[in-house]
Specification:
By secondary structure, the chain is of the alpha/beta class. The chain is 39% helix and 14% strand. The chain has a single domain, classed as Glycosidases (TIM Barrel, Alpha-Beta Barrel). The strands form 3 sheets. Strands 1-2-3-4-5-7-10-11 form an 8-stranded parallel beta barrel, surrounded by 4 helices. The N and C termini lie close together (11 Å).
């Protein structure tokens, strides 16, 4: 396998609600995911993140595990309701103290902390006041960002504003699969704008410290199932909603006009052209969370009843096509070359902008064997293939600077509960015992070489 530069960053990632637990300790307030997970029928296995991996108490051991694997970076998220319990107002010092301890522990082990300000756990009082559908939430996000910079910028020098705003907007406010579980149709695009505005305002705050700041998106290649005009137009629409509605305002300072026309939101967006210079403030890097591509088609005749909520307004009559690729337990097709394709596409939009793979991983039904090991052959193959593509990308001269595996620990996998395991490290949720999987041992050996 090709070599990587000595300064290439290797890490693993987690998210606060998925791993921390301790949801009612040390002044933490409720988030939309606390509310959502405790609503019957929302989570596949009826569970919640109240305890999760107990990372709040076990973080030191978990960071030692990460460092022992040879990883030199830890991407974690800061829980907004742990730092500002009601979403606005003064900081909760106990919450800030936790993240200082976490960051300092990373540094003690030679691990660089990469902090994400928002990985979906919006304080519930802000949702009660309108959530990401209202502008005030973006302004409160700016205030929260300012608090974290005052308190933590000396121990955390790499920041991401948002994680996957596509999920926050379209799964949270479009089809209701994620918290807060609302089905607002085309109004979900208001959440897109307010999330991006919040990003831009937070970026301004972080820039005052001189620290490095980016955003983590989940773009994906979108392919038409055939060369027909209908299928090509279906791919255009999905590409617009999955990729261009985020990449173009961030990197080019404009929204894609065809997406606004498809969704009937042109007039609403035109009111806020003055926000675009804030949204497109200069990034120090862009994070790419890559899992799989999409192949789509436009079927003959409508496939959704009028008014039926869909993941993305404007995509009502588009179907995903199974191309026969192998799939992970999530049902996501495995196409490592898609990582190269999406990194190339972003570089075409913003040449030389540093890129990081901020998430990449796979879920499989892992089990401990009789001798206490986890032989996750499929995950190891997945990692090997995507690391190989990363090497090709670097060799081709694209500005890929790092790779973060998703995820360090098996955890609460959002609406899937504990039924899906992505971790490099197996977690027994009854005992909290950690077991390093074979895929992680492969990665350790690769990094040592």
């Amino acid at each position: 396998m090709s070599t990587f530069p000595d300064d290439f960053v290797w890490g693993a990632a987690t998210a606060s609600y998925q791993v921390e637990g301790a949801v009612a300790e040390d002044g933490r307030g409720p988030s939309i995911w606390d509310t959502f997970a405790h609503t019957p029928g929302r989570i596949l296995d009826g569970t919640n993140g109240d305890v999760a991996d107990d990372h709040y108490h076990r973080y030191a051991d978990d960071i030692r595990l990460l460092a022992d694997l040879g990883l030199k970076a830890y991407r974690f998220s800061i829980a907004w309701p742990r730092v500002v319990p009601t979403g606005s107002g003064p900081a909760n010092q106990a919450g800030l103290d936790f993240y200082r301890r976490l960051a300092e522990t990373c540094l003690e082990h030679g691990v660089t902390p990469y902090a994400t300000l928002y990985h979906w756990d919006l304080p519930q009082p802000l949702e009660d006041a309108g959530g990401w559908l209202v502008r005030d939430t973006a302004e409160r996000f700016r205030d929260y960002a300012a608090l974290t910079q005052t308190a933590l910028s000396d121990v955390i020098s790499h920041w991401m504003t948002l994680n996957e705003p596509w999920c926050s907007a379209f799964l949270g406010y479009g089809n209701g699969e994620h918290a807060p579980g609302r089905t607002e149709g085309a109004d979900a695009l208001k959440a897109v704008h307010h999330l991006l505005l919040g990003h831009g305002l937070a970026l301004q705050e972080i820039k005052t410290t001189g620290n490095s700041v980016g955003i983590a998106l989940n773009p994906a290649p979108v392919h038409p199932a055939s060369t027909s005009d209908a299928d090509r137009d279906a791919a255009r629409r999905i590409d617009g909603l999955r990729n261009r509605i985020f990449l173009e305002p961030l990197l080019l300072g404009k929204y894609p006009q065809d997406v606004l026309e498809d969704t009937g939101t042109t007039q609403w967006f035109e009111q806020f052209d003055a926000d675009l210079p804030v949204i497109s403030g200069p990034l120090d890097f862009l994070g790419v969370n890559y899992y799989c591509p999409s192949t789509v088609a436009a079927p003959e005749g409508p496939i959704s009843a009028p008014g039926r909520p869909t993941t993305q307004p404007g995509s009502e009559n588009v179907v995903a096509v199974d191309t026969g690729l192998a799939k992970t337990q999530m049902g996501w097709p495995i196409q490592p070359s898609g990582l190269r394709d999406i990194l190339q596409a972003i570089n075409d939009l913003a040449p030389e902008l540093p890129l990081y793979v901020t998430e990449n991983g796979s879920a499989y039904p892992d089990e401990l064997t009789a001798d206490g090991t986890v032989e996750d052959v499929e995950r190891q193959q997945y990692l090997e293939q995507h690391v190989a593509i990363s090497a090709e990308v670097v060799a081709a001269g694209l500005p890929l600077k790092g790779y973060f595996a998703w995820t360090l620990l098996d955890n609460f996998e959002w609406a899937w509960g504990y039924s899906r395991r992505f971790g490099l490290v197996h977690v027994d949720y009854a005992t909290q015992e950690r077991t390093v999987k074979h895929s992680a041992l492969w990665l350790k050996g690769f990094l040592a070489r």
